Each structure stands twice: as C-alpha cells, then as structure tokens.
C-alpha cells in the first residue's frame, strides 16, 4: 500500500453511523413485533432533518437479518442520497458475499481517505458464529493501512465490541482477539477512535488516549448493564461525528423519538 498523497482539508468531516438495522427480504419482517424497515426509515428521516451536511455514512454491520440480497438492496434504497460516500462492513447476521455483491466496490472498501482522516472498515464476522474475530489478513491490513496513513488521523471501525461493556450475556459474543487488535493500534499513534455496533446501545469512553464508541441500533435496543438477555423500549437511533483536522472528535447519539417502540415477546426475536 503506497503512501497517500497530501490531503486537502475538509474540516470538519461530517460522519453519520448507522448500525444493526436487521432488515429482511420481506418488507413486513420484524423483531419482537417491531418492523425493522419502519425503524430504519424513521431514523433516516431524523438524520435528514438534523444533519445538514454528511460527508461519509458508516454502516457497521448486521444490515441484514436473513442475509438476503433483497434486504441489502432495501438498505441501500432507504439510505440512498444521505451522503456522497457510504461504506459497509459485515456483522454476524450478514452474509459477506451477498453484501459485497449488492454493495460492489463502491460500498465495500476497507480504506477511505477523507479530509485529514483515514477511515478503516474491518471485517470481524466469523461464518456461522455470533462472536467476532479479526482474522490475520484483517490485522495485517489494519497494520499496513495505519502505517501508510501519513499525517492523517485514523478512525477504525468494526462490528463486534472489543471491550467489556458491563452486560454479562454480551461478553461471550464480542471480539475474541481484542488484545491483538489493541496491540496493533498501540503501534500507531495517529489512531484517534474505535467505532463499533453489535451491542444495540451507546458506549463512549477514553482508554489510553483512544476514544471507544458504540451506537444504538436502528431497530431494537439491548438493556444496558443487563446480566441476561434483555431488551429495552428505548427509541432507535444513530451517531453523528465531527472529525476535526487536529484529530479531535465531537460526537453524540440521537434517537428517533417519534417512533414508539412496542415490543411483542410472542413474536420472533433474534
């Protein structure tokens, strides 16, 4: 990977993250009685109302619940026009080959240089498993892309959580080789933040100068601090980020408060 050309400032870079929509081929498909296309539609409408400028849309996995081409096409249609650049990565419910076939080269790119930043999209999905693992090729890609980033600040994205978030039932389905990920990140001082999905709830902390961020699902939320599987009736949401030339980040989570979540525990769930 060659050293990138000098960047032209676009400060700040306006980013929106959407994660875990869990769409189905069937437009009526839902989880616990909640139609996942409806929730995504409400979140996207809120994004359009609140974000006057979006330079980059990051979609961090579980775009589909059933891995169908129709579900990925629906996601692309519902998010069409939000940003001039969109990037997808797979989660544990996704079928990467189908996702790539629908997204093609435009949406499935590991490295994106924009303004003073380099954004990396990693594949932590394990075929047939719920937990995550960064394969050796992903760790190598990460190390090389960070090493070749030049003066750019770096934002690293994946699906599975790499840290303990205080939910006992979620811990076993997180990233199994987080220590290898953090070992690579520690070699590159320009990494400013790590961003993920999967946990269906917000997370924001600083560790050794690294910002650790997660975001609510655009469908159903998991209850924070739960020991056993537990869902919440909090509204679906998204995260916005402002990536500044000096490496600082402004960010917050917004929720689609106009969507009333009513759960039906007699309906199919996860």
TrEMBL record:
Signal peptide residue numbers: none
Keyword presence, Cell membrane: no
A Pfam family: Metallophos
Domain Calcineurin-like phosphoesterase: 14-202
Superkingdom classification of source: Bacteria
Gene Ontology molecular-function annotations: cyclic-nucleotide phosphodiesterase activity; metal ion binding
Coiled-coil residue windows: none
Membrane keyword on record: no
Classification via InterPro entries: Calcineurin-like_PHP, CNP_phosphodiesterase-III, GpdQ/CpdA-like, Metallo-depent_PP-like
Keyword set, alphabetical order: Hydrolase, Iron, Metal-binding
Homology family: Belongs to the cyclic nucleotide phosphodiesterase class-III family.
Name of the protein in question: Serine/threonine protein phosphatase
